[in-house]
Design brief:
Layout: E1 2-5, E2 12-15, E3 18-21, E4 24-27, H1 32-41, E5 52-58, E6 63-69, E7 77-83, E8 85-92, E9 103-109, E10 115-118, E11 122-128, E12 133-139, E13 148-150, H2 172-175
Antiparallel strand pairs: 1-2, 2-10, 3-4, 5-12, 6-11, 6-13, 7-10, 7-12, 8-9, 8-11
Pathway: Carbohydrate biosynthesis; dTDP-L-rhamnose biosynthesis
Catalytic activity: dTDP-4-dehydro-6-deoxy-alpha-D-glucose = dTDP-4-dehydro-beta-L-rhamnose
Family: Belongs to the dTDP-4-dehydrorhamnose 3,5-epimerase family.
């Protein structure tokens, strides 16, 4: 497994080792011991145990986010695309952080098999770049409806460079999310 820091030191790109031959390929998508030891080696905190896996399927142009949960129900997320392609975004919403309101965005797809580690204290969203994009993510906290919050996906204070598509398909809830003030 290769781990690369992003422009926000706590958000990591994880590239699993993939073994390929004429039959196909194999990879270990998660190993808690390796993941935790790699974070510790980077001087980053070991996250809470992953307690929930989520899987969504989206059409091309579906934009979901930017979502987060308030403490004590905040969630760290280990995200990946298992089919299709998505532009994935993490936004630092930790008020005392030197990277407050900075974002990281990258393409995750079924070819590059990259994953993104997004710790607690970040808002998260993604844009499906292909039909039938399957997004899979592990969370360190359970979904808690009363703690769920969102930020408007195109808030100008965030300057997220979303890929330009002809249109976006966005839920009413995400279209009506509050702007940062």
């Amino acid at each position: 497994m290769k781990i690369t820091r992003t422009s926000i030191a706590d958000v990591l790109i994880i590239e699993p080792t993939v073994f390929s031959d004429d039959r196909g390929w194999f990879m270990e998508s998660f190993n808690e011991e390796h993941f935790n030891s790699r974070l510790s080696a980077l001087g980053l905190p070991v996250p809470n145990t992953f307690v929930q896996d989520n899987h969504s399927s989206s059409k091309r142009s579906v934009l979901r986010g930017l979502h987060y949960q308030l403490a004590p129900h905040a969630q760290g997320k280990l995200v990946r695309v298992v089919k299709g392609s998505a532009f994935d975004v993490a936004v630092d919403i930790r008020e005392n952080s030197p990277t407050y309101l900075k974002c990281v965005g990258l393409e995750l797809n079924d070819s590059n098999k990259k994953m993104l580690w997004i710790p607690e204290g970040f808002a998260h969203g993604f844009l499906a770049l292909e039909d039938d994009t399957h997004f899979l993510y592990k969370t360190t906290g359970y979904y808690h409806k009363e703690s769920e919050r969102s930020i408007l996906w195109n808030d100008s204070k965030l300057d997220i460079q979303w890929p330009q598509l002809d249109s976006y398909i966005i839920s009413q809830k995400d279209r009506e999310a509050p702007r940062l003030t």
